[in-house]
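RETRY 2/3 - previous attempt timed out on the joint model. Re-submitting the same 452-residue input unchanged.
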Amino acid sequence: MREKVAEGRMRVSREASMLDLLVKYAPDFFHGMLVTIFVSGSAILLGTVPALALAFGLMSKHPMVRYAANLYRSFWRGTPILVQLLVVFYLLPVIGISVPPMLAAILALALNTTAFQAEIYRAGLQAIPYGQIEAARMLGIGTRHVRWRILVPQTIRLVLPAIVSEIVIIIKNSSLVSVIAVTELTRVSQQMASNSFRPLESYLAAGVIYLLICLLVSVAGLAVENRLRRQGAVSL
Amino acid sequence: MTTLDFIATYGPLLLSGLFATLRICFFASLIAIPLGLVVALLLRSRRAALRWIARAYVEVMRGTPILVVLFLLYYGGPSFGLVLEAEPVGILGLGLYGAGYFAEILRAGLQSIAQGQIEAARMLGIPAAHILWRIQLPQMLRLVVPPSINQIIVLIKESAALSIITVPELTKIGAQIANETFAVIQPYLAVALLYWLLIEILAALGHWLERKVRHA
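RETRY 2/3 succeeded.
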């Protein structure tokens, strides 16, 4: 592959300037970027509610529930996303479910982020003083109400920074989805590299776009954090 | 092919993949931790330009997928004179990438040590290198060991991406077996179980080490 690149470069380099190339591939990169955002965004959102359930499972009173929740968390946090992706991608057809690669990708990333988000929510939930729960129980507020109206809203504020870094990690890891032929950002840059014989420029372009997306997510996270803090100050 | 046959036939091959993964991550850590320390020191430098460069390094490594870093070095490398086999490129990529994360961990460690200690050491005329090695680093350990173990675990998981640039580590071996046998579930599940086992052992080791440093 790399020898071919060197050969091809000599043929192509005089014909197309870098700018021409970027202009030519800009629509592809834009499309790839949208796929990357769609795949990671769907996975994050799909994983959120199961993650909250898993977090409560991790703190459950029943040993069996705790054990099962721990096993799930341990497996999905203890194996590489790439391997998880391949297992999900190849396992689904075996058990008779045939899905397009993109759906398999979203599913694998969602199953993965569920475990990581659960751990974040668990830490957040445990940071809330137990006295609040006792007080709510004394007032006769039901368990479900205590969870969803008292614990979850406060937890969201506490865990926001950790969730933002989890989003960044999922965006970065979504690049692995290129191996099951989902045409996201990395895949587009691979195609550009092999068509233009300009691997350095192609992957630099992909790297810059990832960097921008991740920076944008971090900045947005900080903005939401500030906003929540102000709102919190007002409501107190 | 039954599972027992599978283990008998491909077990040794898978184990060799596991050792390759371990070897790669060991050498990558040998790059990532010292380089991370250098970047951490630069992050606290008095010169704004150095701080800025270090910050840029950390942000770039933390905002770019390992796969893109690997592609840049492996396929883009020849453009700037870096022509290496896949495995050294993988180790280098993983090391450079990990350094961005270790820098933040070590920066937090350096920050945890009271400035007065360092000022006192300077007053006593202790050389800067000595201050770092004998005063700052030993005290940082307690704070730095747990996240470092965690980061090494992350590196092991990220090292699966090396299979995509054809490094024969655990995931790649699994893919080769899948190609040979046309059985996809067994090889990938076996690979997943081996990673899981390795990481659980490391996590347990980390907890043990954490307790040890806390009491030290």
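The first helix of chain A runs from residue 2 to 12. Closing ticket.
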